[in-house]
Design goal:
single chain, alpha/beta, Uracil-DNA Glycosylase, subunit E, Nucleotidyltransferase, domain 5, Taq DNA Polymerase, Chain T, domain 4, 6-stranded mixed β-sheet, 5-stranded mixed β-sheet, 28 helices, 24 strands, about 45% helix, globular
Length: about 750
């Protein structure tokens, strides 16, 4: 434990903007005497001399001017209170604790929690583990390397971190901080990668037979793969640790260390230094903070967080494999579809410029589009974002025409810049030769098991500063035509059928919903038949799609306005005609009616089911899923519709995420190392993979591995076994599904 003592008093140095929130702030002080200070100061010596004479040695502050005076010269530029929140900086015997601006006590669901946590560093210091003293050195010689190896081999845990350069995806330095728990000592070593000897040292240190901890280690592992420098004992990862405990909190290393280390001080601004020694020190501090945070987590995190970690951390391994393999890119097709998209954009642009009578009209310009909306009569538009344009489209057919074309143009531009870049902007790895369609080029991506509050995977561009976000490519997009199977292989996708709907049915216990899923019917067709009063056999694909949109919106407690924005004006008008509603009804009123249809059809969902979610969060501050995954909840679903929506969505999304995780791991462990099988990625509720032509049995085996029962207890205490069916789709040569 920390040897610091509880203070006799504390100064609260705040801005005038913070003062209204003081009544919410003061309970965190737990009775410690305090004095509020909002005055001006020229030097910190003025403040510290005065308070020390009164026997006060602690200041809690939200003030940027004080922060800048505390920082070494050069580091005050660009400093932000939010970055330093949770940091303790000592100044001539006085501890200064930085906390977030007090408005965050109400503006962020976790604001009060973080504030109490940070303030406890001052009012309850003995509850905090005493961190080891930071010290470090550069490994610049064989003797330094042998010293580093000798020390690290005596440690209980080693924090590892690398710094990289964007050019050529290279490692600039690799750091290691070992901690010995018996005497609470640590030391960090940084290896600048400037010679082949330093690469050898890095490989040797990576292979030391001691547990390693990283912060989002898939990033580091990707680079270590390039250097043939595998890591022994990667058992811990602070980003996954925090996600398993408090999934709603920020998970960058600065935030993690502020939460878990008492005497932490934000250091990430050192990354921008031009001083090489300071840069290497930054790397060493990353390693120290990572190792210290992991130890604190292991000592403090509750058992349910550990169980979460044991469920989620194993996903890092298959995710890493998928990231490093990526997909083959058809560069000829990429050029073709990139050109076609550009031509579509040009055609829409020409059409809009003619319609506006302005040759320089730019649909991507927020100011120009907002002015256009004002001219068209939508005077209250304060922006031109998608939400505003969707709302404008409901006001008049002319505005709908303009809004539709502007949104289509923006969508095409985003698709082009995100997925169809060519030439110097190409995102393949390795970069294709400028004049050839390089068949070796692959499109990479990152998969993050910790990427969402619900536990679903998230995706982003690859760690090598290239690639794409693989999960959000539109289903029928030409982009998927450019992603092709490897030579001799073909694509398959195994997709859980209507997984989230089934989760709502089994979680709510609504008899009408359960009847649908226990019957041999297409659930979306059946619901569309219920909503629109059309016989089941007469439901067309388009009507089924409308019913699906209503169902999705109602499942997640959307309001009428959000449903309108989600469905789009033309779809709502189609539904209005199908339902034979009064043409004079506004589109928002039509959406209200459609949501009512869902509530009438499935009455338990928004009554008993939602009430059970509210009660669980109110009583326990947690939501515990059927698979055991537990989420700590900072929001209050009884008073906040936003919080209710998030937690309603969480229950089914998390359930399906954990089922897919289990399936993904089963497929990985049994099939991923076979020469005739290539694991691709998790894509929402599906697994994308390749099998060698003629090995259809492996595709069938994926389906078998994904099919298993999960016992679910509904909100009324009734337990049922739910097995989500798997639809196996043979896609062939391209991800889009072309056979040739």
């Amino acid at each position: 434990m920390n040897t610091a003592t509880k203070p006799g008093g504390v100064v609260i140095a705040i801005t005038n903007e913070d003062k209204p929130y003081l009544p919410r702030f003061k309970p965190a002080l737990k009775g410690v005497a305090s004095k509020v200070f909002t005055g001006n100061i020229d030097t910190l010596a003025e403040l510290t001399t005065k308070i020390k004479s009164a026997g006060v040695y602690h200041v809690i502050t939200t003030r940027l001017d004080i922060l800048k005076k505390l920082l070494p010269q050069g580091r005050e530029k660009g400093a932000k209170i939010d970055n330093y929140a949770g940091s303790i900086i000592e100044y001539y015997g006085v501890e200064f604790l930085l906390v977030n601006p007090m408005r965050q006590l109400v503006s962020k669901s976790y604001g009060d929690f973080l504030n109490r946590r940070y303030v406890s560093k001052i009012v309850s210091p003995n509850k905090w583990r005493k961190e080891s003293k930071f010290d470090w050195k550069i490994v610049a010689s064989e003797q330094d390397f042998l010293e580093a190896k000798s020390f690290l081999e005596t440690c209980d845990i080693i924090g590892v971190d690398i710094e990289t350069t964007r050019d050529n995806a290279a490692i600039r330095c690799s750091g290691y901080c070992g901690i010995r728990l018996q005497d609470n000592t640590s030391f960090a070593y940084v290896v600048p990668l400037k010679t082949m000897s330093s690469v050898y040292w890095m490989r040797e240190l990576n292979w030391i037979q001691k547990p390693k901890v990283f912060q989002n280690g898939k990033y580091d592992l990707a680079y270590f793969c390039r250097y043939s420098a595998p890591v022994w004992g990667y058992y811990f990862d602070t980003v996954n640790m925090l996600h398993s405990w408090y999934s709603e909190l920020p998970k960058d290393l600065g935030s993690v260390s502020a939460l878990l280390i008492r005497n932490s001080m934000y250091w990430k601004d050192l990354a921008a230094t031009e001083d090489e020694i300071e840069y290497f020190k930054y790397n060493a501090l990353d390693c120290w903070a990572t190792a210290e945070s992991a130890i604190s987590w292991m000592l403090e995190a509750p058992q349910w967080a550990l169980e979460n970690y044991k469920m989620k951390f194993p996903q890092v391994v298959p995710a890493h494999m998928c990231e490093m393999r990526g997909f083959r890119r058809d560069m000829v097709a990429l050029e073709k579809y990139s050109k076609a998209s550009a031509e579509k954009q040009d055609a829409i642009l020409e059409k809009l410029q003619k319609a506006t009578g302005y040759a320089n009209f730019n649909p991507s310009s927020p100011i120009q589009v907002k002015n256009l909306l004002h001219v068209l009569g939508f005077k209250r538009a304060v922006s031109s974002d998608e939400k505003t344009l969707v709302e404008a489209a409901t006001k008049h057919p002319l505005m709908e025409w303009f809004a539709g074309n502007i949104l289509e143009y923006r969508g095409l531009r985003k698709e082009s810049s995100t997925y169809l870049t060519v030439g110097d902007a190409a995102k393949e790895f390795p970069p294709p030769a400028a004049s050839t369609a390089d068949s070796r080029s692959r499109i990479l991506f990152a998969l993050n098991p910790h990427g969402t509050d619900t536990g679903r995977y998230a995706s982003r561009e690859h760690h090598f500063w290239c690639g794409l976000q693989v999960q959000n490519i539109p289903a029928d997009s030409d982009v998927k035509e450019t992603i092709v199977a490897d030579e001799g292989f073909e694509f398959y996708e195994a997709d859980y059928s209507q997984a989230e709907d089934r989760g709502v049915a089994y979680g709510s216990g609504d008899e009408n919903l359960l009847h649908i899923f226990l019957s041999d019917v297409d659930s979306h067709k059946y619901k569309a038949s219920m909503f629109f009063g059309i016989p089941y056999d007469e439901i067309t694909k388009d009507i089924r799609h409308l019913g699906k949109r209503i169902n999705h919106g109602a499942n997640y407690n959307m309001g009428a306005q959000i449903l309108l924005e989600t469905m789009g004006s033309s779809n709502v008008r189609t539904a209005q005609k199908l339902l034979e509603l009064n043409p004079a009804l506004s589109q928002v009123e039509v959406c209200k009616h459609m949501l009512f249809l869902y509530e009438r059809a499935f009455p338990k969902v928004k009554s008993t089911y939602y009430a059970s979610i509210k009660a669980q969060v109110r009583v326990t501050n947690k939501l515990v899923g059927a698979t055991g995954w537990t989420r700590y909840c900072f929001g209050d679903p009884s008073s906040s519709k936003m919080a209710l929506n998030a937690y309603v969505a969480h229950v089914t999304q998390s359930l399906n995420a954990m089922i897919l995780d289990r399936a993904f791991l089963r497929v990985f462990l049994e099939l991923a190392f076979l020469p005739d099988f290539k694991l691709g990625a998790q894509i929402h509720d599906s697994i994308l993979f390749q099998v060698r032509i003629g090995r259809e049995d492996l595709a069938e085996r994926v389906k078998e591995l994904m099919t298993f029962p999960v016992n679910i207890t509904d909100c009324q205490g009734v337990e049922r076994a739910m097995t989500v069916p798997v639809e196996l789709k043979k896609l062939g040569r391209t991800w889009r599904g072309t056979s040739e």
